[in-house]
Each structure stands twice: as C-alpha cells, then as structure tokens.
C-alpha cells in the first residue's frame, strides 16, 4: 500500500521525503521491523520508541512516524512528524489493514468482570446462527474456527488491526472483542468503528496502572463517549456506574438489569449446581450456568444479540444450549460427593460474587473451602482484600500462589495474610505450592461441600520468577478426582 494512502488517516505536521512509497508492514516495535515497513515511534510507559528509530531503519524501515525528528535525516527514508503518535498509530494501522471495521460489525465488551464470558458467548452464539465470526479475548483469539494465541486482553493496535483485517478478508460478519481499560487509555482502539459497546460492571482493579478509581472509570467511560451514533451502548443498570458510563455517548442507549424494568429485564427463578431457570422479558429459559453474575452476563448476551437484529425466540433457544466458558465457574463433581468449582475470580468483587453464588445454591447444606491467591507484580492493594473476602464467606481458606510472575510467592501470601486478624487466622492455612493447596482442600472436603479454586490461575500456566510453567487448575482437580 502507498504511504500517502496510509497517512491520510492522520493530521501530518511535517513530511520529509516522498509519500509515494510502497509500505509492506507497519510496526511500533523496532525489533519487528522488516524491509519496507513504516515504524511508528511511541513514548511508552517504560521507554521512548523514538530511541529506536535508527534501529528500525537498520532493520529496513522506509518510513518513520514520530513526534520529534531524529538528528540524522536519511535521504532514503520518509519522515512523518505529527503531534501524538500514540493516538495516531491505531488510525494508521486501520488504514494499512484496509479499514476492517467498515466490513464487519465490531462489538466491544468492557468492564471489570465478565468481558471474556460475554464476548466468548456472543462468538459461540453467532457461530451457531451460521455466521463466520471473530473473537478477540484474553484466553484466545479466533478467526472463525482458527485459534490464535492471545497475550493481551486487547492486543496492541497493530496486532489488533491485523487480526480484524484477516477477519474481514475471511468473510467474518461479526467480531466480538474485550476492551480493557489499558487499551482505552493507550488508545489501542483508536480508528476502529464499533457497531456496539457493552458495559458489565466496574469495581476496584488495575489501580497499579490507573492510580485512582476515578481515572479507571474515566478510561472505561471514554469508550462509550467515543462510540458512533450508529452503534448501540448496552449498559448494566445493576451497576452503580451503569448510567454514568453512557451519559455522554452519542450511541443508541439500551439497558439490562436483574432488578429494574428496562429493555432487557431478567430474573433468576431457580438455581442449582447444574444450571439456572431464568425469566428474560417474561419468557423462561433453562441455562447451564451458575450464579447471579452469570445471569447478568447472559442478559447482556441476550440484549446484544437482539440489538444486532436476531429474533428474541432464536436468541433464547441459543442461550439454552450455551456452555460455561472454560474456568469461569466451572463446576466439577467428585465421586465422593463434593463439588469443585474452578473460577478465575481475581478481584475482591469477583470473589464476593462467586462466593455469594455458591451460598445461594448450597443453602447451608455444606461447607465452603476456598483456595485463593493473588497475582504478582500487579495491584498490591487488593491482596489483603482478597483474603478478607475469602475468609468472610468460607469455612476454611487455603492461601496459596497465583501466577507470582517476578515476585516471591511467599511475599504475596504474606501481603494477603496481613489483611486478617487472629480470629480469621483460625480458618486459614497457607500452602505455597498451588497443586498441594488444591489437593489439601479436596482432602478436607466432605460430601455436600464445595471446594472453590479461585484467583487468576493464569489460564493454563503460572509464571514463576519469569518462567512460565504449565499449570491448569481443572487438570489438577481431574487428576485428584481420578485418584479418589
Ligand atoms: C503498561 C502497559 O500496558 N504497557 C503496554 C504498552 O507498552 P509500553 O507503553 O509500556 O511500551 P514501552 O516498553 O515503554 O516501549 C515504548 C515503545 O518502544 C518500543 N520499543 C521498545 C524497545 C525496543 O527495543 N524497540 C522498540 O521499538 C515499544 O514497542 C513501544 O512501542 O503498549 C504495548 C503495546 O500496546 C503493550 O504491549 C504494553 O503492554 C504490557 C506488555 C502489559 O503487560 N500490559 C498489561 C498491563 C495490559 O495491557 N493489560 C490489559 C488488561 C489486563 C486485564 O484486564 O487483566 C490488556 O489489555 O491485556
Ligand atoms: N458479571 C459479572 N459480575 C461480577 N463478577 C463476574 C461477572 N462475570 C464474571 N465474573 C467473575 O469474574 C471472573 C472472570 O470472568 P471473565 O473472565 O469473564 O471476566 P473478564 O472481565 O474477562 O476478566 P479478565 O479479562 O481479567 O479475564 C469470573 O470467573 C467470575 O468469578
């Protein structure tokens, strides 16, 4: 593609060299640059991409987008100076990858919890309806049935547009994506035209990055502020910031709730460890999901599907066939009679919700044994809160490692224990080895009990001192069940 076509997408302050060049790739990382690429220098959180301009040229870049020109200007390179490269890169990538969101309907899901669940269920549902569909999610990205490993909730703008470009080229009619607050703040989604946005909820999280809850809220809200008029903005009225989230949007507002009468109103009529009976807009549907928060997620899925024009009857039928997303309230039954639930509740609020859901179903007929940890090198403030919430609603708590990254797992456990008093400690064991912790919880369980394995057991690995080790909570539980 010609450079002049790409840079039409942004306001250029200064152009040095020819814009009549063929561009074969676009990069924000000099290490990925190849011959004929356009390199965009971004001031990041760790380093300044401007320091790598010469490296990018050595690797073959023929165009440089920057905020400050380098001292050495080379005749064989075109330099494009503009005011804000971070804000521009998404727009440049969108232009380079053929404006994918003009060819498919992109729906973004944002909020502290529920993004993966809702985006994945919409992807599954629309494939059931017979469409080719894309998914961009923390667990894995999909271009229809092709799985592409994910290393972010929302990828960097180049990867994001490349994936969306492939989805459009391969005939996907819809793409569902998780939109993280980091991605909004860093404008990874700039240049994309959304057909819809869904808000789940907002509670304390990611304050290591956003610093204050207000900044975190502002980042999420910016997503809705920037939706186009043609899009829908589907919000959750059960969250206290549900209305605030959409107050400045130009998009068509719709709402879902388990409490208030609105566009998509639901109610839990019956619940058990095998599923729930829901009432959605006065029609009953059996679903294979557990917990009120999942009823809320399913309402969002229902609402979004209806807003995308699917008949409500068809959507209800599809809802009844959907299965839980791996590791999201995954209930496993032991031959000894107890239930193990693997859930990636990794915020205090998610932990409260999961424990509430377990108690709603247990109705005092069994005990709850919780295995919980907290991730390393992230928001330390939530560690004592996780321990406190676990203790409040469990009969026994085993505090253990949970993706410690570069930190010493024992230090993280100590931060969690610091939130507990002497009485709390009577219920608590700490076992650093996560496998051993799960095994001990299962050993302690009696028939009727529930073992909750919570915390972000980072999908299928644990990063310990920077090295990733395969680790899958569900695999461990199935191994224990096999030995029982
Ligand atoms: C703190 C943070 O969010 N950082 C993100 C940010 O990188 P950065 O600003 O820190 O980049 P930097 O390291 O300072 O480098 C600046 C620039 O120099 C470039 N560079 C750097 C070195 C070099 O040799 N050559 C070179 O060109 C870099 O490619 C970059 O363009 O922009 C990058 C591109 O989009 C992201 O990959 C990176 O994510 C880091 C790896 C990360 O871990 N982010 C997490 C916190 C994150 O984004 N999480 C959210 C949600 C998680 C959740 O909900 O649980 C997500 O969406 O995944
Ligand atoms: N609507 C909800 N309200 C509160 N908690 C929820 C909700 N949906 C899911 N959870 C809890 O959060 C956990 C993570 O769910 P999910 O992966 O869907 O969220 P997420 O927003 O994608 O988070 P992440 O991107 O960090 O994985 C679930 O296992 C459950 O414990």
Automatic annotation (TrEMBL):
Cellular component terms per the entry's GO annotation: cytoplasm
Catalysed conversion reaction: UDP-N-acetyl-alpha-D-muramoyl-L-alanyl-D-glutamate + meso-2,6-diaminopimelate + ATP = UDP-N-acetyl-alpha-D-muramoyl-L-alanyl-gamma-D-glutamyl-meso-2,6-diaminopimelate + ADP + phosphate + H(+)
Domain Mur ligase N-terminal catalytic: 23-97
UniProt entry tagged with the keyword NADP: no
Entry's localization field: Cytoplasm
One of the GO biological process terms: peptidoglycan biosynthetic process
Free-text description of this protein's post-translational modifications in UniProt: Carboxylation is probably crucial for Mg(2+) binding and, consequently, for the gamma-phosphate positioning of ATP.
EC primary class: ligase
Keywords from the named record: ATP-binding, Cell cycle, Cell division, Cell shape, Cell wall biogenesis/degradation, Cytoplasm, Ligase, Magnesium, Nucleotide-binding, Peptidoglycan synthesis
Binding site for ATP: 111-117
Residues bound to UDP-N-acetyl-alpha-D-muramoyl-L-alanyl-D-glutamate: 30, 153-154, 180, 186, 188
Sequence positions that bind meso-2,6-diaminopimelate: 378, 402-405, 455, 459
Function in brief: Catalyzes the addition of meso-diaminopimelic acid to the nucleotide precursor UDP-N-acetylmuramoyl-L-alanyl-D-glutamate (UMAG) in the biosynthesis of bacterial cell-wall peptidoglycan.
Protein's recorded name: UDP-N-acetylmuramoyl-L-alanyl-D-glutamate--2,6-diaminopimelate ligase
Higher taxonomy: Bacteria, Pseudomonadati, Bacteroidota, Bacteroidia, Bacteroidales
Gene symbol of the encoding locus: murE
